[in-house]
Amino acid sequence: MPYVYMVRCENGALYTGWTTDLARRLAAHQSGTGAKYTKGFGAAALAWAEPQADKAAALRREAVVKKLPKEQKEALAAGFDPARFAVLRPARPADAAEVLAVFDHYVKNSTASFLYRAPAVEEYQREIRRLARSLPYLVAQDAEGRMLGYACAHPWRYGRDAYAWDAETTIYLAPGARRLGVGSMLYHALLAALAEEGYWNAYGVLADPNPESEAFHAAFGFVCEGRQARSGYKHGWQGVSYWLLALREGQQEPQALPGPLPKGRLEEILAAARLGRSWKEIAEGSPRAAARANTE
Known about the structure:
Blueprint: E1 3-9, E2 14-19, H1 22-31, H2 36-41, E3 43-51, H3 55-66, H4 70-78, E4 86-90, H5 96-109, H6 121-132, E5 137-142, E6 147-155, E7 166-173, H7 182-197, E8 201-208, H8 211-219, E9 223-233, E10 237-246, H9 265-274, H10 279-284, H11 287-295
Parallel strand pairs: 7-8
Antiparallel strand pairs: 1-2, 1-3, 4-5, 5-6, 6-7, 8-10, 9-10
């Protein structure tokens, strides 16, 4: 996703640029390999960033910001908090340690996960690599590269052919990233990607009771299909509730098995979610949706 940004240099000046990888570009500036100006004067920190719809928009916005008076640039910087600015991207195996640091908080301090211990980093690197081959696995970082949270999907009742069009969803946020809108962006992107891949149903399995997570899922259209009491023992006996979101309506026979998105499409979905579009808006506007409508 394109971003226009400003970096605060060690002499107090603000350098303006654009990039599709904000954290990596910031690291390049700070190491002296980003641009001639920041190499000469030193880049201290990210001062401001703003997402753009595409490269053309980023170039236009960059030109506008570069021409702003110093006072207006400083006003933009004054209203920017890098810890609250989410950068969305597909997960990589190298993210395993940071993802597990988020997950481990819930393993140790809540019943949101029924695990007693988080997996080892090496094991989870393999898990991310395996899942990302066929299902969306997404992470959110702040503008300085710190992990804010992640969302992913798993096969529902893996190994049984009739469930091939169903996926189970998962989302966890770092404690400091809650109520910043990060979870909504991640979940809209995840659900849109599942819908475009050809999944019909998304299932959420929640510890019961969990009113906050229930309200979160209900806001996306999930409906509770049932509850099981005394399903697992962690900090006492816990229940489970099952939530369903129909990604596609109807009773017709599926025409194909779900499949990976075309190259670059997941990044487009993330960009749309970052700009506030819902999963339905993203999925219904996709090329696959248009092609499907023409054949039905």
